[in-house]
Amino acid sequence: MSPTRGALVTGAAVTAAAAAVLTVVVWPDGSGSGPSGDTASPSGTSAEAAAPSPSRSYPMSSTPSAIPAVREHTAARGPGWQPGEDSTVVIAKGSQVLADEAELLAKELKIRYRGAEPARTGDVELALGAKDAGPAESYTLTVRDRKVKITGPDESGVFYGTRTLKQSLKADGTFPEGVVNDRPDRPQRGLNLDIARKHYSAEWIEDRIREMGDLKLNQLGLHFSDDQAFRIESKSHPEVVSDQALTQDEVRRIVGLANSRHIEVVPEIDSPGHLGAVLAAHPDLQLRNTAGVESKGSIDISKPAAAKLIDELLEEYTELFPGRFWHLGADEYQALTVQNPAASYPQLQRAAEERHGADATIEDLATSWLNDRADVVVPKGRTAKAWNDGLFRGTKVKADENIEIEYWTGKEIGARPPQEYLAEGYKMLNLNDEFLYYVLGEPNEFVYPTGERIYEQWTPLVLRGTEPVAERYSKQILGGRFAVWGDLPNAQTTEQVADGIRMPLVATSQKLWDPRKPALSWAQFQELAKRTGSAG
After folding, report:
1. What confidence score (pLDDT) does residue 132 get?
2. CB 56: neighbour CB atoms within 10 A?
């Protein structure tokens, strides 16, 4: 995880010959024709069937301006759409769950929301389709006869369609005639934020959520406990909370805004390492070696009271964060970084043998700690996550196969390549520290990542270093998050962080939505980001 822990307006050509309708698909070579098996509409409706009525009085439309770029656009002749004085936003009959998305869009476009009423000329209609109408988060956006209709199999897909409409209008003033069929390549796409070592206000976090929503990102990781601080109010253990911390009411507000943008907040209490702030209030649980020297940030997992304390915190915060995921950390337990862990921490070795047999190791004990913490959150409907260096090679005890592995580095002691986890069947998320780690102060030879490098060189398959894993593992790689870490928290102000991460996050959103080689050059992509408002 944190590095101090061990070290598009597309470029595809549109040929408007005698045909009235043309499908433009953004493929890696910009040719306008895709590989076999990916030419169908992502929402289950063929582009030809959904084609707008032809008209000889208008030129063929161009692809809408959006980031991330739409994956497929069926061009047509027609005036396109822009909001007029009488334009409104409506929802289709039976689509009342889309009222929030409709009201937000109406506010952004400065037009009225009329509710569940028939669409008129000049209107935007939002409609929820059948669940099997297309992949999750997909949408179809049709502009025909001076109306816009956005449909999708789920609310998030319809919301993403409204983001495409909003961006394209900002960039070009008019949304082009035709049909957009769009979908994300990966189901998890987001930003990871270390709020433990650097305090960020609720308002600052909310601003990032709004930016993320427009970029069709759907996951915000909050690392709120570390050696330096514990940054969210606790009712069960107020003694562990730092002076500067978010209140629980502020967290509820953050979660509520995130939900409205179809973003899940993924909380993280890292253990059994990185617990310095918690242990400052519970020194009796601090791990010490035979000489009485503290192991930085490490809780003594041989003590039942250690599990009780962390589980009480997990119980409390799973109520505060209602999303599907919980990050358990598990990285960099300092007891395992010394030359002879069993000799330095005999109490851990004894506990391992008592629980798992005479040939057990401290790695087995740490793995069972991870599984036990997963057993707290999984019954509450959460999927557990852990950092890759919290799983060990050759242990008797195996980490639960349903834990999602978040791969961040290959530089740690005993580091395992991502292929090992993939070959064992684990699902993974990409937080490659070579490309996606924005570490304040640039310690340990880290440099601030650039959007250009992410845009041109990174894909979700590039989990470690610069080389991708085999394509056969692609379905196990669920997506990725761009990560901000506060190692030297005063190196930048919060405003500088917001500015510094903006274009790298924009580039990350593009490559998670569509990892193929972009049609635009980096310079063209930057210009598009300015026009759509993505560049700030």
Report:
1. 85
2. 7
Beta-bridge mates of residue 485 = 439
Cβ-based neighbours of 535, under 8 Å, separated by 6 or more: 502, 503, 506, 526, 529
Neighbour count for residue 125 (Cβ, 10 Å): 22
Cβ atoms within 10 A of the Cβ of 21, count? 20
SS3 category, 296: strand
- Return the half-sphere exposure (C-beta side, CA atoms, 13 A cut-off) of residue 525: 24
The Cα 120–Cα 67 span in angstroms is: 29
Place of tokens 């993939």: 422
The amino acid at residue 435 is: F
Alpha-helix runs per DSSP H in 394-493: 418-423, 451-457
DSSP 136: T
Please state, in angstroms and rounded to a whole number, the distance separating the CA atoms of residues 112 and 120: 13
Assessment of whether the complete model's pTM goes beyond 0.85: yes
**To the nearest whole number, what is the mean pLDDT of the chain?**
91
CB-CB neighbours of 164 under 10 Å: 25
Q: Which residue has the tokens 């669940």?
A: 131
Instruction: Specify whether the CB–CB gap between 92 and 57 falls below 8 A.
Output: no
* 141 SS3 class: strand
Query: How far is it, in rounded angstroms, from Cα 56 to Cα 78?
Result: 8
Cα separations in angstroms, 411 against 5, 332, 431, 475:
10, 12, 13, 25
The residue assigned the tokens 């209609």 is 125
Coil, strand or helix at 486? coil
Other CB atoms within 10 A of residue 245 CB: 20
**Contact at 8 Å (CB) between 393 and 409?**
no
Max Cα-Cα span within the chain: 86
Cα distances (angstroms) measured from residue 390 to each of 20, 342, 367: 57, 18, 8
Whether residue 251 contacts residue 235, with contact meaning beta carbons closer than 8 Å, is answered with no
Contacts (Cβ under 8 Å, ≥6 apart) of 213: 159, 163, 261, 262, 263
pLDDT digits (tens, 9 = 90+) for 245-261: 999 999 999 999 999 99
- 185: region left, alpha or beta (phi > 0 left; psi from -120 to 50 alpha): alpha
Whole-angstrom Cα distance, residue 300 to residue 369? 11
pLDDT tens-digit map of 197-239: 999 999 999 999 999 999 999 999 999 999 999 999 999 999 9
Cα distance between residue 499 and residue 453, in whole Å:
17
Joined together, the tokens standing for residue 67 give 């980031």
Identify any residues that bridge with 141 across adjacent strands, giving them in sequence order. 150, 180
Tokens 């082009």 locate to 176
Contact 434, 441 (CB under 8 A): no
